[in-house]
Amino acid sequence: MEKVPHQTNAVLIGKKPVMNYVLAIVRLFNQEGVDEVIVRARGGNIYKAVDAIETTKNLFIKNLKIKKFDINSEEMEDDKGTKRRVSSVEIVIYKE
Amino acid sequence: MEKVPHQTNAVLIGKKPVMNYVLAIVRLFNQEGVDEVIVRARGGNIYKAVDAIETTKNLFIKNLKIKKFDINSEEMEDDKGTKRRVSSVEIVIYKE
């Protein structure tokens, strides 16, 4: 049976514990069989994105490599309606 | 007069406001004339590293590009002597 193509190889880092994202990455590679995973994070979650990738590499996928790293920023409004610029990252990883 | 070679093209992101690091990066490129700048940060400062690069690009150096992005981790002891792994990044940037 042919595999149906899908665009679910992205992990958006949010407020959950880092291990949730580690397991999401591992599942994409090992169960879904994707070639690469796109990890996206914004603002204060950027550290968690790096941490998730590093933890995935240390604990589960030794040959994990970074293919692409992009940074960007977008203007956002906070609760009080004040506009501020928030940085974001997109990190593409793959198994060598 | 020949320029003396130096290895001061690295910026370590710490506790200062992000604009300090933005100005450090701009000074390295525009006054010191280095070809590339290495931005290093650890743990919670990783966001600030991304922010500094993004702000430098938006405000001062439009053609700023990322050459290399590495992540790593090291074991550290906190105040109570508990060992924990802290992720770090090294981002090499250049003017295109």
TL;DR of this structure?
Two copies of one chain form a homodimer. With 96 residues, chain A is α+β, with helices and mostly antiparallel strands.
What can you see in these coordinates?
- The structure is a homodimer.
- The first copy, chain A, is of the alpha+beta class.
- Chain A is built from 2 helices and 4 strands, in the order E-H-E-H-E-E.
- Chain A has a single domain, classed as Alba-like domain (Translation Initiation Factor IF3, 2-Layer Sandwich).
- In chain A, about 30% of the residues lie in helices and about 40% in strands.
- In chain A, strands 1-2-4-3 form a 4-stranded mixed beta sheet, covered by helices on one side.
- In chain A, strand 3 (about 65-75) and strand 4 form a beta hairpin.
- In chain A, helix 1 crosses helix 2 (about 45-60).
- The two termini of chain A are about 25 Å apart.
- The interface of A and B includes residues 58, 66 and 71 of A.
Task: Note the topology.
2 copies of one chain form a homodimer.
Chain A: E1 10-12, H1 18-30, E2 36-42, H2 46-59, E3 64-77, E4 83-95
Parallel strand pairs in A: 1-2
Antiparallel strand pairs in A: 2-4, 3-4
Helix pairs in contact in A: 1-2
Short descriptors:
homodimer, 96 residues, alpha+beta, Translation Initiation Factor IF3, 4-stranded mixed sheet, 28% helix
Distance between the terminal alpha carbons of chain A, to the nearest Å? 26 Å
Helix content of chain A: 25-40%
The chain-level structural class of chain A is alpha+beta
At the first level of CATH, the class of chain A is: Alpha Beta
> Major sheet of chain A: size, sense and barrel closure?
4 strands, mixed
* Strands in their spatial order, largest beta sheet of chain A: 1-2-4-3
Identify the overall geometry of chain A.
elongated
Q: Give the largest interface pair and sizes.
A: A-B, 20 and 20 residues
Name the CATH homologous superfamily of chain A. Answer: Alba-like domain
Rg of chain A is: 15 Å
CATH architecture of chain A: 2-Layer Sandwich
